[in-house]
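User: My instructor asked us to take a sequence, write out its structure as tokens, and then describe one feature of it. I'm not sure where to start. Here is the sequence I was given:
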Amino acid sequence: MPYPDGVPGGRFREIYYWDSYFTILGLQISSRVDLIQNMVDNFSYLVEHIGYIPNGNRTYYIGRSQPPFYACMVKLLSEEKGDNVLIDYLPQLEKEYNFWMDGSNSLDDSNPSAHRVSLLSKGNVLNHYWDENDTPRPESFREDVELAHDTENKAARYRNLRAAAESGWDFSSRWFKDVNDFSSIHTTEIIPVDLNCLLFNLERTIAEAYQLLKNEEQSLKFELAAKA
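Assistant: Let's start with the prediction itself. The structure tokens for your sequence are:
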């Protein structure tokens, strides 16, 4: 990471994506706009170099993200430094949006789900959690192997475990078909309302940035996406 940052502490010596937003709320109360700026710039660096913000800044987290709070961070920084902040980070906001919407143009009745998007009735597209990999997580390798030992489709179980890690709710019975059975995890089959609220906020933030640029066409595009 190019700039000094804030980490959770203890055994967590690296940044984690969605946790960092709540750190930033505390930094705002503490008037540490300098550190807020650093954290936003570090996440922007990750977007530029990886194409999205991974779960945390370790190489084995590449393949998954976390709840997309980047737009909330940029919006908070704009409260401290003015609306031009939204324009400055518009390219990174759009890159993150494109990451979450990857595959949306290929969806149809025969292919209703791809990566982090799913086609619902009436043509609506909403988001779910995912991971590009379907192997045990390096940070929990033994536990994942043990949990998948009794299933023929180990790849699907590993991906659902990884997707739950992307959600940040790792682990909650929210992702289980049977709330008492960890092995019933099916994260990728669930459309979470909170994730889609964050994507709604991302669309509205991008629309606002384009409005500031007087680009009515692009602003309307993202306002309509948010409305949908």
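For the description part of your assignment, you could build on this observation: The first strand starts at residue 113 and ends at 114. Try explaining in your own words what that tells you about the chain.
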